[in-house]
Amino acid sequence: MKSIEYYLKGLFRNIERTDEVREQIEELSSHIRDRVADLCDSGMEEMAALEKTVADLGDLDELIDTIFRRKVRVRRVRIDFLTMAAGAAYGAAYLAFATLCVASWYFGSGALYLTVPAFAGYLVPLVFAAARFARSPEKTELIPYPDGASFRASLAGWALISGICVIANLLMIVTREPCRFWSWMPVAGIFTWPLMTGITWLLSVREIRKSDIDA
């Protein structure tokens, strides 16, 4: 069955051969060979049997990405909703405290004109995420395997921006009187970025582990 060997060689040509990968390749290859052999025994020609076997497997790129953990299927709509809900809860707490500070420092009750529109930045995405979740709570999507890289990048970005804000605040304190320690507000606000990225990562990993256990 040279046609099968050529097909399998091409199918796995760009995959790094670790012990685990070799085991997965052999398992999938064995399944393809057995299926083709069964179809040939029933009277089908080898090429036709191979074509039918490949067609029955579905999207092979997705299958290979899933087997070798390059991509994974998760309930993305559910994860997005939970992430947005957590972000909105954090935003509500952060902006409530920010309102008290801005009110006492500068604007009194006028602080609400700043913080209520800011909360819309948390609330509106949550409403859209909730609507998507209500329509398709179990909808899945294929995503790159979560390795924490996005979370680490967001944490580094937050730290950099926070440092800039704190330095600017300290320079104002040194050169101007009076000056409040206002930099905590952008630092806390921008923390939403790594917070939500981290929650998305953790929920995705949790889904993957649950799927592995159920399997």
Keywords:
two-stranded antiparallel ribbon, mainly alpha, single chain, 2 strands, 215 residues, 4% strand
What does this structure look like?
This protein is mainly alpha-helical. The protein folds into two domains: 2-68, no CATH class; 73-214, no CATH class. The protein has helices spanning 2-11, 19-41, 46-57, 60-67, 76-107, 112-135, 149-175, 184-190, 192-214; strands spanning 71-74, 141-144. It has a two-stranded antiparallel ribbon. α5 runs antiparallel to α6 (112-135). It is elongated. The mean pLDDT is 83.
Secondary-structure element order, N to C: HHHHEHHEHHH
The proportion of strand residues reads under 5%
Are there runs of 5+ residues with pLDDT below 50, and where?
none
Q: Report the total helices.
A: 9
Report the mean per-residue pLDDT as an integer: 83
**Count of distinct strands:** 2
In summary, what is this structure?
The protein contains 9 helices and 2 strands. A two-stranded antiparallel sheet has the order 1-2.
